[in-house]
Structure prediction request, 444 residues.
Amino acid sequence: MNIDSIQNGIVIDHIRAGNSLRIYRYLELDKLACSVAIIQNCKSRKMGRKDIIKIDEEYEVNLDILGYLDPDATVTFIRDGKTALKRKCALPDKIINVIHCKNPRCITVTEPGLDQSFRLADRERKRYRCIYCDASMQA
Amino acid sequence: MFHLNSIQDLTETQIDALISLAEEIVRDKAKFREACRYKTLATLFYEASTRTRLSFEAAMHELGGNVIGFADAASSSATKGESVADTVRTVACYADIIVMRHPKEGAPMAASLKSPIPIINAGDGGHNHPTQTLADLFTIYKIKGRFEKQTIGLCGDLMFGRTVHSLIRALSRYNDIEFVLISPEELRLPDYLKEDSLNRSNVTFRETEELEGVIQELDVLYMTRVQRERFFNEADYVRLKDRYILTRSMLRNAKEDLAILHPLPRVNEIAVEVDDDHRACYFSQMLYGKYMRMALLMNMLEVSL
Prediction:
């Protein structure tokens, strides 16, 4: 299967197979005016199977959200048909307003205007905790 | 300016300094009679309290300061739907420091993000209660003279017992501490505390449901109440509330220098007959708590003599 190469835009590669739609949703790529290609379940020497997202426009990708959703993903910035910059993702130390605390006793349930803020508690286990109540969330 | 949300906001050095100051206050109370003159403490208690609120109020009065506040959410604008953030910004116009108890976990932390004056967490749901921990630490220090090399039994509601959570976090930083966690399976210590505080600090701990089988090993026994207000289901509370009752006969096998602590209030978990035993320390624990809160108020208000 062939997808046209990009002149100016970004490629999110090495996405865990099956994870691309989640990334599409969290990064709100549906709100972009340009073409976005989601390639699912393609062969990968390193990963066996992987997903790829191609965005046909220069776009400031939120690496914290992407790192939280898929810390092994890579981001390549394309300019004039050439690789301008390549970035590896990583679990961010903090994530704000990406996930919501599920603890019904947490102050975020009742207090208006409060950021949903999580800190990385355990990098190995990819575990985040709500900064208010310490409730755990798995990345 | 700093806020006290969790006992982890204080380093060991800061805790040592608070203990030293509290000891100085115990030795010479008159010297501190006007230490906080012209300072005002606001006590914002959205949830019922006897000891914590009164001990903070007594602490401020004994330091020569003033106290304002409310003792339950019903007498505040919380009933009109006012947010915690707006309430603290209002109170900050009238006070120099705020002590807050709230049923929601993390409420004092949310308040501290907006408050121009220091916030002290006086208990947030089943989460943290750092000033009770300061009282507990001072009590252990006064009775045992050290924190290291002790076997600490924690008994009762370890799931929702915020005093237990804060105490484990504080004591995990000291050497040669062993915890014996005594609770029914439904009220075991949350996993995050085992991972974050015990495993990470390589603290030895074990879990059991039987108090009588381990009481002879303990240097400190910290009893807790099964808290009705933390249960969504009344039937679960009724089933678990009298699971542990410490009686005088159970103390027959305990060490002579065991220290029995309880954050109070108690319901049935310590029989009244134990009160006369020389190992019962829970009433002096309240008094030590007041001195520790005096030291904390002075420290957070940056007051010195």
Strands of chain B lie at 40-45, 66-70, 97-102, 119-124, 150-155, 177-182, 204-208, 220-223, 259-261. Chain B touches chain A through 19 residues (CB under 8 Å). Chain B is about 35% helix and 15% strand.
